[in-house]
């Protein structure tokens, strides 16, 4: 498949670029940089840098103008994964133990911080590479991205903590816009467009077009968490149920479930996750039976089907908008990659 | 005392400035920004922003040229505190429970990340405020600072984890240079000098002069951890012993202790901290008796006295270098503040 080989080519480019960002002499760095590379060197999709590279080149920009920024996005994504895995009490990431399971929370917190710290220098060096104006606009986008992501994470943590379940689909979409779409889709597309020399208005339009793709991507992520082949998925199956995440799937199930089932589900969702040591002393924890009840309820409500449909609609919306917007772009493998993304997003298995 | 009122004036300025950095509408931010202000609004020294303000103004720069950058340094410092408190399993910060004790590790990790994310925008806005050249040099210094700090933290975490105790005083000094001196002294002084319009060579010289003050500051921190009045200190007493931190004090005690005592101490230091849940299952934990043994050993070796002497010598070195370097600076309250810092650093009680 062309898309897969495009992604894999980008992954290799980004890995090599990431290595050049690390200091050559790591004797007095306590192993920080080796651990920073641990997640990036596991098999990842490299979707974010591929987006940046594809849009930049589809619009006539050259690879060298975007590659370091694309690598920064991959580094930022992996920093988020390291910290999110702590936050979500996850055990598995890309088929191996999470960083904090292997090395403890203190080291994982610091490795994530180190990755965030490393983001700035390559973005400053963009000045020499693509000129001052573009470099500053890229920095502004990255600054906004980091804020949106932290806000999105915080909203989600508060939802989980409060065990409030009066949310509707549009609340979910708003959350996903901040916590996933901004750093995984809007920012990669926008920095790519800036690097290719697009004007501000066009950059914003391209970012806007990408939002439905980001929503579709996260819905498919939620679906995979509940239905994926564990081996291909590489993460904790049903982790979202243990954690009590507000997915479109659960919001739907609770909306249409009979009152008794809804009440039982809400009682389960108010319980904490067994791994959440901060809550272990004071609260009841979810059991395997509890999680099985939620899975059964989701099946009876056909909520996965509902979510898949929603993801498909968002993906279609992205496809239509991209088609309408890219008519004048010359044909290229980069444009093809972007066209294939809608299908990939809703059909992927990891 | 003039120094105290100078610090307190800077603290107020920085607090007001921090509030202007937060978005005016926080309805869709999950309470992120309120939690970001939690540590800064507790009583802190505001030493780092005061350093920036003092050097900038002592060199003829104006307050508005440095205040946002000074506030960024305070924000960065508080982000480090939020994450370090998780890493160090601390219970108390500035006389109140640490953020992760109050809100759980997931929220504390994310609040720290949010604070780090907020650093970038005000530094970009420096371009309008102080001009492009200065703004970029400040960004470069902050990028280096974040890397040095993460490296320093990592070295320390590895020392604690490996329970290796073959370090000498110069290893400690090198660690402190990275984990404390860079972000607490070098960076504040250097960005202040840049904002005041100093040339690169002078900026580097001023940073260099400040290193001994940073070392003195950390040694005094270690001394306070073992001897402070808990109430004034506001942090966990003896936390460094529970954690097994490689302080100058412990390195000295282990160097001069009789072989039997050294062996007993090393056995204790190889045990983990009771709060370190990752290790709880597999390792033995330190007991109150263990920590008492370490305290007694330190007393018998007169190691606190040794550390105090060392701190005094570093403070004196800073004072001499500053005097030699600042002869041509016009008299000002800002210059006075810098002169008084040597005494403050080694005599402070919190």
Fold topology:
2 copies of one chain form a homodimer.
Chain A: H1 2-21, H2 32-36, H3 38-41, H4 47-58, H5 63-87, E1 92-93, E2 96-97, H6 99-103, H7 105-118, H8 120-130, H9 132-162, H10 169-195, H11 200-227, H12 230-233, H13 239-243, H14 248-256, H15 259-269, H16 277-280, H17 288-300, H18 303-325, H19 333-347
Antiparallel strand pairs in A: 1-2
Helix pairs in contact in A: 1-4, 1-5, 4-5, 4-10, 4-19, 5-7, 5-8, 5-10, 8-9, 9-10, 10-11, 11-18, 11-19, 14-15, 14-17, 14-18, 18-19
Q: Tell me the number of helical segments of chain A per DSSP (H or I, 4 or more residues long).
A: 19
Could you tell me which chain pair has the largest interface and how many residues each side has?
A-B, 53 and 53 residues
**What percent of the residues of chain A sit in helical stretches (DSSP H or I)?**
over 70%
Order of H and E elements of chain A? HHHHHEEHHHHHHHHHHHHHH
Head-to-tail CA distance between termini of chain A? 16 Å
Q: What Rg of chain A do the Cα atoms give?
A: 20 Å
Bin the strand percentage of chain A. Answer: under 5%
Note the overall shape of chain A. Answer: globular
Total beta strands of chain A: 2
Count up the domains of chain A: 1
State the assembly state of the protein chains.
homodimer
Main sheet summary of chain A:
2 strands, antiparallel
């Amino acid at each position: 498949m062309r898309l897969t080989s495009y992604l894999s080519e980008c992954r290799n480019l980004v890995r090599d670029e990431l290595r050049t960002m690390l200091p050559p002499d790591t004797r007095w760095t306590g192993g920080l940089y080796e651990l920073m590379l641990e997640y990036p060197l596991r098999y990842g999709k490299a979707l974010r840098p591929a987006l940046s590279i594809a849009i930049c080149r589809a619009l006539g920009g050259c690879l060298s103008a975007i590659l370091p920024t694309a690598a920064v996005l991959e580094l930022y994504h992996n920093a988020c994964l390291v910290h999110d895995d702590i936050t979500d009490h996850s055990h598995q990431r890309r088929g191996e133990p999470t960083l904090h399971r292997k090395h403890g929370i203190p080291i994982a917190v610091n490795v994530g911080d180190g990755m965030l710290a490393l983001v700035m220098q390559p973005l400053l060096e963009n000045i020499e590479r693509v000129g001052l104006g573009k470099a500053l606009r890229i920095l502004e986008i990255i600054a906004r991205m980091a804020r949106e992501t932290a806000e999105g994470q915080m909203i989600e943590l508060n939802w989980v903590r409060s065990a409030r379940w009066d949310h509707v689909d549009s609340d979910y979409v708003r959350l996903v816009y901040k916590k996933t779409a901004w750093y995984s889709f809007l920012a990669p597309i926008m920095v790519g467009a800036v690097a290719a020399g697009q004007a501000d208005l066009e950059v914003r339009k391209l970012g806007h077009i990408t939002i439905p793709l980001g929503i579709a991507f996260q819905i498919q992520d939620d679906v995979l968490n509940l239905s994926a082949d564990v081996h291909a998925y590489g993460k904790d199956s049903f982790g979202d149920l243990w954690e009590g995440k507000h997915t479109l799937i659960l919001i739907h199930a609770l909306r249409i479930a009979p009152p008794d089932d809804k009440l039982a589900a809400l009682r389960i969702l108010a319980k904490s996750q067994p791994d959440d040591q901060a809550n272990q002393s004071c609260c009841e924890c979810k059991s395997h039976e509890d999680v099985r009840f939620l899975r059964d309820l989701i099946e009876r409500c056909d909520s996965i089907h509902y979510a898949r449909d929603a993801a498909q609609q968002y993906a279609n919306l992205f496809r239509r908008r991209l088609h309408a917007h890219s008519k004048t772009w010359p044909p290229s493998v980069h444009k093809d990659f972007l066209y294939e993304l809608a299908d990939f997003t809703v059909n992927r298995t990891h």
